[in-house]
């Protein structure tokens, strides 16, 4: 293993001359829970020239992006656009714009990203309530409804796919519960969108946000968002008019959205026909997001989900074929990631380090109660492919063997092949 170059010590007086070389990252196969290798088409889109944000070509790209993501989200929502920033920029924009201080937010928590929703809702000064499921399980619709009746929240905020536990929370029954009780319904679909079913309109969602670095085959740095007409009304009632720059509107000056950057009303006016100035568009990321959606829709929404289901199933069979145990309720596992229990006696971090150093393959560690207990292996976006699954399983077998774990020779690759052969059989 080559040693990493030392980082220069912090300067105490004048900084020493230090000129590192250009970035030249090694070849890696990113098989963790995200980020994954971006599709080369997305990398090419990222390197195309910049143009001004009011150039008609650029506003055309913005309109394309809105139309493309309406299809990705399965929605007719006019308000479908991008928040510039990583996935949590989308989460934060949704919560800070939809929730007034003191309003109640109910969060089903079944992993780390549920805790993130509670934390962001707290910072938006919401009164936060939770309904919890043990890690490795999802929350039942009955438990959500019981909590909705008890808490009477303004907003239900739920993660769809929580990569920390690999669980995919069923959402299809929650919209009806929210509608019956007059609750806004928001989901963070960052890890799941593209690789698992998602129906914004059919499931009654008022708001949903995502990122590119999971099943959408892009880098992190752009957060697709969609808002129902009802969510837009809630946002519009509070959106701040920026003095001297934006026209007078009906903004609630007493209780404005407590962020300029994440004021969804202002961002909507920027994306919408008024094209009012807000931030400088992250042009390169918009190119990337647009290309991600084009790639997905070209293959077909259902075909992409089916591909994630197939390669997820092959990886699941493969790790079991290596004699490894899988964490969590597999019936509710996301298609695109599996949590594998680290065999007793093996140092999980050393195993991951060997995968990276010896094979150039990155797999994921875990957080909180699962740290040191499981590895997380992803098959998502551009990396949801047969070659990546077989390579990862072949490499993992060798790492386990060298770590002293007894594994059935070829057991991982054989089991994955069996899944593929079944699909190919006439
Ligand atoms: C990966 C992931 C995120 C990532 O957020 P970033 O701001 O892009 O790091 C958010 N939510 C969920 C559910 C995730 O799995």
TrEMBL record:
<keyword id="KW-0032">Aminotransferase</keyword>
<feature type="binding site">
    <location>
        <position position="376"/>
    </location>
    <ligand>
        <name>substrate</name>
    </ligand>
</feature>
<dbReference type="Pfam" id="PF00266">
    <property type="entry name" value="Aminotran_5"/>
</dbReference>
<feature type="domain" description="Aminotransferase class V">
    <location>
        <begin position="72"/>
        <end position="222"/>
    </location>
</feature>
<comment type="similarity">
    <text>Belongs to the class-V pyridoxal-phosphate-dependent aminotransferase family.</text>
</comment>
<dbReference type="InterPro" id="IPR015424">
    <property type="entry name" value="PyrdxlP-dep_Trfase"/>
</dbReference>
<dbReference type="GO" id="GO:0004760">
    <property type="term" value="F:L-serine-pyruvate transaminase activity"/>
</dbReference>
<dbReference type="GO" id="GO:0019265">
    <property type="term" value="P:glycine biosynthetic process, by transamination of glyoxylate"/>
</dbReference>
<protein>
    <submittedName>
        <fullName>(S)-ureidoglycine-glyoxylate aminotransferase</fullName>
    </submittedName>
</protein>
<dbReference type="InterPro" id="IPR024169">
    <property type="entry name" value="SP_NH2Trfase/AEP_transaminase"/>
</dbReference>
<feature type="modified residue" description="N6-(pyridoxal phosphate)lysine">
    <location>
        <position position="214"/>
    </location>
</feature>
<dbReference type="InterPro" id="IPR000192">
    <property type="entry name" value="Aminotrans_V_dom"/>
</dbReference>
<dbReference type="InterPro" id="IPR015422">
    <property type="entry name" value="PyrdxlP-dep_Trfase_small"/>
</dbReference>
<keyword id="KW-0663">Pyridoxal phosphate</keyword>
<dbReference type="InterPro" id="IPR015421">
    <property type="entry name" value="PyrdxlP-dep_Trfase_major"/>
</dbReference>
<dbReference type="GO" id="GO:0008453">
    <property type="term" value="F:alanine-glyoxylate transaminase activity"/>
</dbReference>
<keyword id="KW-0808">Transferase</keyword>
């Amino acid at each position: 293993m080559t040693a990493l170059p030392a980082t220069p010590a912090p300067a105490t007086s004048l900084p020493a001359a230090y000129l590192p070389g250009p970035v030249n990252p090694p070849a890696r196969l990113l098989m963790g829970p995200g980020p994954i290798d971006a599709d080369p088409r997305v990398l090419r889109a990222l390197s195309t020239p910049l143009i001004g944000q009011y150039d008609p070509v650029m506003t055309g790209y913005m309109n394309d992006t809105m139309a493309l993501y309406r299809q990705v989200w399965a929605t007719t929502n006019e308000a479908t656009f991008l928040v510039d920033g990583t996935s949590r920029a989308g989460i934060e924009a949704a919560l800070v714009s939809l929730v007034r201080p003191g309003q109640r937010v109910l969060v089903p928590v079944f992993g780390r990203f549920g805790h993130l929703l509670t934390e962001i809702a707290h910072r938006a000064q919401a009164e936060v309530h939770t309904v919890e499921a043990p890690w490795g399980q999802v929350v039942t619709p009955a438990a959500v409804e019981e909590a909705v009746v008890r808490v009477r929240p303004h907003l239900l905020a739920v993660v769809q796919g929580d990569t920390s536990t690999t669980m995919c929370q069923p959402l299809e029954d929650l919209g009806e519960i929210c509608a019956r009780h007059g609750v806004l319904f928001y989901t963070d679909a960052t890890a799941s969108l593209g690789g698992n079913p998602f129906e914004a309109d059919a499931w009654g969602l008022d708001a949903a946000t995502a990122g590119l670095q999971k099943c959408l085959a892009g880098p992190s740095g752009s957060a697709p968002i969609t808002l129902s007409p009802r969510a837009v009304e809630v946002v519009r009632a509070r959106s701040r008019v920026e003095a001297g720059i934006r026209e007078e509107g009906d903004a609630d000056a007493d209780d404005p959205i407590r962020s300029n950057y994440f004021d969804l009303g202002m961002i909507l006016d920027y994306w919408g026909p008024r094209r009012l100035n807000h931030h400088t568009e992250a042009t390169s990321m918009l190119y990337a997001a647009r290309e991600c959606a084009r790639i997905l829709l070209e293959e077909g929404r259902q075909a992409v989900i089916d591909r994630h289901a197939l390669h997820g199933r092959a990886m699941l069979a493969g790790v079991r074929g290596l004699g490894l145990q899988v964490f969590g309720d597999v019936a509710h596992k996301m298609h695109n990631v599996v949590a594998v229990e680290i065999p007793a006696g093996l140092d999980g971090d050393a195993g991951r380090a060997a995968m990276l150093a010896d094979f150039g393959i990155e797999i994921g560690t875990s957080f909180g109660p699962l740290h040191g207990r499981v590895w997380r292996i992803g098959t998502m976006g551009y990396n949801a492919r047969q070659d990546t699954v077989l390579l990862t399983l072949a490499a993992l077998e060798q790492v386990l063997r060298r770590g002293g774990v007894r594994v059935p020779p070829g057991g991982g690759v054989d089991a994955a092949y069996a899944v593929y052969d079944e699909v190919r059989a006439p």
